[in-house]
Amino acid sequence: MMDKKALLSFLLPVLITFCVSVGFVCFTLFRVDGDIMQFIVIGTRFSDGDPNGSEGYDGQFGYYIAMQPNPRIVSSHLDVPAYRYQRILLPVLARIFSSGNPQWIPWWLVILPLLGQVVGVAFVAKIIQDQEHNPLFALIYGLNAGSLLSIRVALPEPLAYAFVAGALYAIRKRNYWIGALCFALAFFTKEVTLVFGGAILVWLLLERQWKSSSILLLVSFLPFALWQGWLWRTFGQMGIGSGGEYASSFEWIPFMGLLRIAEYSRVYFFAMLVAFLPFVVVPSVWGAWVSFWQIIRREWNFAVLSLFFHCLVMFFLPFSTYRETGGILRLSVGFVLAFLIYVVNENMPKVLRFLPFWWVYNVFLFR
C-alpha cells in the first residue's frame, strides 16, 4: 500500500485533470447557453441528407451511431460508414448509460471521454510514480490540447487512450491478460491505438515471449481483425483508413503532409509550421533518432518501440490531417503519451522538464 504522502502525490494530478476537464466543459456549456448538442457539432449534410448542407464535425457520427446502432439505417448518416462504425465502443457505451434516451445520449458522449481522461491520467501517474518520478508529470498527458479538444467535440480519443494507459500499466505488472483486454477495448474505441498495440506485440516477439504475444494476438488483434471482416461484409470495405470522406492518403516522404499545405497557401503553411514545428516536427525527429539507435543496439523495450512507431506515424501523416489544427492535435494524443512514457522510462529528467511546453497548444481550444 502507498503511504499517505505517496497517495496524495498520486491523486493530485488526477484531481487537477478532473477539475480542469469539468471546468472546461462547464465553461463551454456557459458559452453555448447549456446546449449539449453544440458539443456534437451536427452537420445538416449528414443529419438531413442535404448535399449542400453544413459539414459538422466528426463527433456527429458517434452520435448518429448511438442514436441508431443498426448499420443499415445509420449508414446514410455516415460519410464513410465502415471507417466511422469501426469506432463502436463509445457510441454503444453512451447508449447503454443513457438507457437509449435521446436526450441523455449526447451528455454521455461527453461524460465518457471526460471520465476516460481522468482514468487515463491515473494510470499514467502510477506508471510515473513507480519509476520514482513526480506523478505531477502525468499532467503533460492529462492537460494536453488534443485530449481536451476531443472532450469538447465528443470524440473517443480520451477513452481510447485510457484503455491504452491501463494496458501499459497491466503489462508493466506482467498481467498480460488484463493488458490484452484493455488493448482490445482501445482498438474498438479508436483504431489509431493499434500503433501502441503493434509496438507492444513487436516488443514481445523480439523478446521471444511467445505466450504473452499469443495472448495479445488472441485477445486483442484477432477480435479486431474479425470486426474488420464484418465491416467489409456489411459496408463493402474495411474500416482502417487515413480518414473520413475527404481524407488524403498517407505520405511516403516524411512530413510531406505538412509541406503540401504550401501548395494551397504559403501564409497558412508558415503559420502551421511555426505552430507545429516545436509540437510535432522536432519531437518526432528527435524521438525517431534516439529510439532508432536504441533498436539498432538491441536496447529495445516497450517504451522505445512505442515511441519509434508513433514517430513514424507523425512522419507520414496525410495532408488532410496536417491541414487541420484540430486533426493534428487529436492525432498527437498517442504521440504525447508515448513520448512521456519513453522519457520517464529512460530516466531523462532534463527532457521531462521541457514537456509542459505542450500545454501552450491549449490556446487553440479557445478560438
Brief digest:
This protein is mostly helical. Helices cover 68% and strands 0% of the residues. It has one domain.
Explained architecture:
The protein is mostly helical and 367 residues long. The chain has one domain. Helices cover 68% and strands 0% of the residues. α8 (105-130) packs parallel to α11, α11 runs parallel beside α19 and α17 packs antiparallel against α19.
Features:
367 residues, single chain, mainly alpha
Provide the β-strand percentage band: under 5%
Q: Runs with pLDDT <50, length 5+?
A: none
How many strand elements? Answer: 0
Please estimate the helix content. 55-70%
**Major sheet attributes:** none
Mean pLDDT, all residues: 95
Order of helices and strands: HHHHHHHHHHHHHHHHHHHH
- Number of alpha- plus pi-helical segments: 20
- Derived structural class: mainly alpha
Radius of gyration: 20 Å
Gap between N and C termini: 44 Å
Anisotropy-based shape: globular
- For the record, the count of structural domains works out to 1
Give me the secondary-structure topology.
Elements: H1 4-31, H2 37-40, H3 44-47, H4 59-67, H5 71-74, H6 81-85, H7 89-97, H8 105-130, H9 139-142, H10 145-152, H11 157-172, H12 176-189, H13 194-206, H14 210-235, H15 256-259, H16 266-296, H17 302-316, H18 319-322, H19 325-345, H20 349-354
